[in-house]
Amino acid sequence: IEDLLSSDTCVCRMDGGCLVEGLRKASLEMVVPWGDSDRVVVVLGEHVGKLGQILQQEPERGWALVQLGQDAAPQVLLLPYNFICHYLGAGED
Fold this sequence. Notes:
- It is found in: Nucleus.
- The chain is mostly beta strands.
- 0% of the residues lie in helices and 43% in strands.
């Protein structure tokens, strides 16, 4: 996912490098990275569109501890895997 256009549509970069715009959430499969410290984007819930970093995971329970933001007071949230997706795009402005 390169960019979120709305709460239901996004722009995705395919493996070959081309961009596909206007994809609906229902047509996507969310991928959660395996390693801690990987970057994610929130795709469901009140924090949709925010970027974060995985601090800890518990795959058996299907959740990750995610730090949102990089400011002086970042938020740390326990989020279900279906609320996050691996993020490979550019950093926050």
